[in-house]
Request: fold
Amino acid sequence: MNTAIQEQDAKLTKKEKMYYVHSIVGVALMFLFGLLPPFDPVTPIGMKFLGIFIGLLYLWSTVDMGWPIFAAFVALVVLDCMPITQIYTTAFANSTLMLCLFTMLVIMPLAETGIFDYVAAWLLKKPFLKGHPWRLTIGLIALVFIGCICHGGIAILFMVFELTYKICDMCGMKRTHPWAGAIITGAVVSFVIGGGVFPFNGLPLFIMGVFSSIQTFQWPFLQYMLFMIIMEIVIMFFYCLFIKVLRVDMTKLREADVSDFVRELPPPSNYQKKAATMLITFIGCLVVVGIVSAFPANIFTTFCSRIGLVGVSWVFMCLMVIWRIKEKPAYTFNIMSAKVPWDSVFIICIGMSFGPAIASETTGISAWLYQLTAPILAGHSAFGFIMLVCLITLVLTNFLNNTVVIMLIISVIAAYVPTMDLNVITMAGMMLVASQMAMFVPGASYYAGLAHGQASQTGRKNGFLWGGMVMLATACAMPIMLIIGNLLF
Reply:
């Protein structure tokens, strides 16, 4: 009997066999593609980078999101593409990753207390939202946009993630439902654009500096902010239109009656109330520290500038560990780390290290892409030129580091500025968005990592589907935004 059970357990299902086959194929691509002869101007090391990238895409599409990243790291070291110390510093020791990781270490454990059950029930019972799934959809996405404008974006983004999952649970929908995937990716898009509304933030300042290097101009701050808000509205219009066209079933959201579920919920415990208070306070502190640079220097603003957003997370991590319930810690670092979606963290790591490396001069890949794009851009009107520049940027940032693509495209634009009547300010605003909307490939950017990193909840297919829809919505919005930009600037 035991032997029969062992034999049955030893047999691989067809799905398991294909998992191993896909794994072998993906790893083989990583290590063997680089043996192919290089083509000018791509160098031999560039071929190795291409092989690792192609293998990574294949594995992400067919098997898993997590372990292929470490297979890619191993290939980078073994094939002598990057020293392991460089991987350490670029992938794991950067401020963006630290902010994301430490914010999740605070928010995720607090979210596990069940406080979002009450928030979700409250939302679904509101007359304005009850039976109106589109209002709920737009409201959740808009919440992230507003939160980003108030500099509490990363915390509110993760809060919306958890809230989306709780709403699915209450409505009897699987978390892999297309609606959940649409909200997750749409929230990340709002996180991107919301972070670019204020011109004194890091990304807009960088874009301003780059475009100022090719043409001197006065940056109209108020018009630029209005332009970015309109950009969010137009992109979300097309995004929601695609949700409608794809016939995403929202019946359960429309018919959801949470009254039975609410009756089953006990009154919030003191533990849940304290957790909710701590979460709200944490988000409030992030907002204050985020906007403090806009105020005159004093003791308080200096303190906030020194501690920064990561420092705020550290303070709250200490408070969570200090907190005692019946003489035992309410949280430990082991408990907190167990709640982190590590796939998201690792996808961000590979994007931070792999993107700049593949676009370095030693690979020849940037030069190859320049050769491909420059002839495409020649011989067009100003309108057509700007549209092509944005579309090329949108596509290339799926495969190369955002900053590298911007610098590559800027070098092309600079050659055409003296001979074409280009609205440089409009181009800057459109490039800012186009360079960050690469959501189709998981490791394309930090933002793509946030969206695809939820695959453990929403499934891999949702990430690719809605990442593609975001890019399509952005492409559809660009002609409209070019017309609006020409009117504003």
Notes: The radius of gyration is 24 Å. Residues 14-81 form one domain.
